[in-house]
Write a structure and sequence with these properties.
Layout: E1 5-8, H1 19-31, E2 38-41, H2 51-59, E3 62-69, E4 75-83, E5 88-92, H3 93-97, H4 115-126, E6 131-135, H5 146-151, E7 155-157, E8 176-178, E9 190-195, H6 207-211, H7 219-240, H8 252-264, E10 267-270, H9 271-279, H10 281-285, E11 290-298, H11 307-317, E12 322-329, E13 343-346, H12 354-359, H13 361-380
Parallel strand pairs: 1-2, 1-11, 5-6, 6-9, 9-10, 11-12, 12-13
Antiparallel strand pairs: 3-4, 4-5, 7-8
Helix pairs in contact: 1-13
Length: about 375
């Protein structure tokens, strides 16, 4: 069969290959069998780590690096992406306020801040962006996005009119929010926040209870942080008439989802949907004979908003077969067969250490893609 058009749309293979590098490796393997096919590479992500790189690669944009305030107040090197001739900025909040910036023994969500996220937003506006996509995930913070707002000019005040310091715990003393000096450009920007969680801001399924412990919060800290975020939501509801507490996704990134709703008037959307839209995946699928997607691990959780399923869903709208490739296959991986993926394969040839698997990911991906093409060719003949 003459493979006229093949769309290759993987996520990154974490710690080994970016989404673009994975796509290029798959293409190289397929070319051994189909050297003359029309290959369309669409690096993908689901709104979390790697989203900036994927969209910049897919849309031929640029990465802007900048020093910002890190989660514990010390400077860190962060970045954001500009695409669509600089009109759209993509920001991963973790680039400024991510847990990877803090050693495990130093993690403290009581004082960690999203101030650096606000600095990235401000820089994106300075560069002329009028549409900002904010990826929520991987945070070290639990401050409801209030640090972000402080960087943009918001004043968070206690009942004596004193400004609050950084961190989620400080919100327990919040009495009022002064937005008179808030950056006026915010009202002119279209914000969209990408998340793959539906947790509310507070409660047993909220930001503090579910995600706080992995950020270093003790049981006592969780109660304190949850109470502080509850106070924040009550002040917002009382003074601005906006209920941010129970909105699905409000608890993402330590409550930054709620902060994005209130301070930025942002919509919360599934990350994969945003990436599909911005990358133009649906249009690029038109006329394709085969789609190959993948990520580091395919398991039962893949069906919940992960990249391979988002890609497969789009492909099935156009009746295109889909093959998934993964660094490993986990429990429940067969579930993807009911969600648009027709077949899936692990690229690892046998029992090897994680270190070796990561080091050899590119070669394994090339070889597996070539074997997929061989089997496909035999079936068609």
């Amino acid at each position: 069969m003459n493979q006229r058009k093949i769309v290759i749309a993987p996520d990154s293979f974490k710690e080994s290959l970016t989404a673009l590098e994975a796509a290029e490796a798959i293409k190289k393997g397929l070319q051994y069998i189909w050297p003359d096919a029309d290959y369309v590479l669409v690096p993908m992500a689901d709104g979390g780590e790697g989203t900036v790189r994927s969209l910049v690669d897919a849309l031929h944009g640029q990465i802007i690096t900048q020093e910002v305030t890190g989660p514990l107040g010390k400077p860190v090197s962060a970045f954001f992406g500009l695409v669509n001739d600089g009109t759209t900025a993509i920001i991963e909040m973790a680039a400024a306020s991510g847990i990877e910036h803090i050693k495990p023994e130093d993690r403290n969500p009581l004082i960690a801040t999203t101030y650096g996220v606000g600095e990235l937003i401000r820089s994106a506006m300075d560069h002329g962006a009028n549409h900002i996509i904010l990826g929520l995930g991987g945070s070290a913070t639990n401050d409801g996005g209030c640090g972000m707002a402080q960087a943009l000019g918001a004043r968070l005040l206690d009942d004596s009119g004193r400004e609050l310091g950084f961190g989620g715990a400080a919100l327990d003393e919040l009495a009022s929010i002064d937005l008179s000096c808030f950056d006026p450009r915010i009202k002119t920007i279209r914000f969209e926040a990408a998340t793959d969680v539906t947790n509310p801001l507070t409660g047993t399924q909220g930001a503090s209870a579910v995600f706080g412990p992995q950020k270093g919060a003790s049981e006592q800290d969780v109660c304190k942080l949850d109470h502080a975020l509850k106070n924040f939501s009550e002040v917002v509801n009382r003074d601005f008439g906006i209920d941010i507490d129970r909105v699905p996704g409000a608890g993402a990134a330590g409550g930054l989802g709620a902060g994005a709703i209130f301070f930025l008037n942002s919509k919360l959307r599934p990350g994969i949907d945003l990436v599909i839209k911005e990358s133009g995946l649906k249009q690029k699928l038109s006329g394709a004979s085969l789609v190959i997607t993948g990520e580091g691990k395919i398991d039962g959780q893949t069906v919940y908003g992960k990249t391979p399923i988002g890609v497969a869903r789009c492909a099935k709208e156009q009746h295109i077969p889909v093959i998934g490739l993964a660094g490993s296959l986990g429990n429940g991986c067969d579930a993807v067969l009911s969600h648009g993926i027709d077949a899936f394969f692990s690229i690892v040839p046998g029992a090897v250490s994680l270190e070796i698997a990561l080091h050899e990911a590119k070669a394994n991906l090339i070889r597996t893609a070539a074997n997929v093409a061989r089997v496909w060719q035999m079936a068609k003949n």
